Amino acid sequence: MPASPRCSVIIRCFNEAKHIGKLLAHLAQQTERAVEVIVVDSGSTDGTVAIAQSHGAKVLAISPQEFTFGRALNRGLAAATAPLAVLASAHVYPVSPTWLEHLLAPFDQDPALALTYGAQVGNERTQFSEHQIFRKWFPPEGPWYRQDHPFCNNANAAIRRAVWQAQPYDEALTGLEDLDWAKRALAAGHRLAYVPSAAIVHVHEETPARVRNRYRREAIAYKRIFPEAHFTLGDFLLLFPTNVLSDWAQA
User: Fold this and answer.
1) What is the reported pTM?
2) Residue 3 — pLDDT band, cuts 50, 70, 90?
């Protein structure tokens, strides 16, 4: 770890031995070299911790019983020493060696910037439906632009730690802690930016039951963040056929 790192990379993980080594290897090849790596592990039993340590990462443990997405991030950020923190899922890896450089560059241009997030794409194992989501949520506009809505994604994001110190992540949410944090940052007068050139490959290999659970958790969290939100049977009857037709046309 450099004596004065420019950024701290926080990686949350649980049984990610299949993927985390690739991310850590790519981190070592980045053009941005002043980096410390902190892995927050929630009880892995598959060798994840040993792989992280072999790459020189600092490993913090959080028990499965006390794990929430926000709490794991707060633990990692509290142990970080750099002014900027990059948040990454353990099952992602950068598209290019300039990933960190591009993700961090907007902070030098805008002192009011609280968060940046980069593009996400799939690979040859990604389901068609997820390719469609990536295309919709992470368009190729650039090089970067400010936004006035709180959408972001902590699988590939960077934040200013000074802002986090004033408003930590909500540890009670069942998901979407990134959306909640960004919403509060905007309300406090900070800015967000999307950086399409800071792209990663996001590898989801989930069973249908895990996908359902993920969407259920996020729906519960979304209703807490936006109490006025609603989704009716009429919404479903409209969206289902239009999404099917859209997927068919794209395919």
Assistant:
1) 0.91
2) low
Strand partners of residue 192 = 115, 147
Strand partners, 145: 194
Q: Which tokens sit at 225?
A: 């963040």
The rounded percent of the chain whose pLDDT value lies above 90 is 80
- Which sign does the torsion angle of CA 10, 154, 75, 51 carry? negative
Tokens at residue 186, please? 């905007």
Question: Residue 141, class by beta-carbon neighbours within 10 Å (0-12 exposed, 13-18 middle, 19+ buried)?
Answer: exposed
Structure tokens at 156: 């590939």
Residue bearing tokens 């540890």: 171
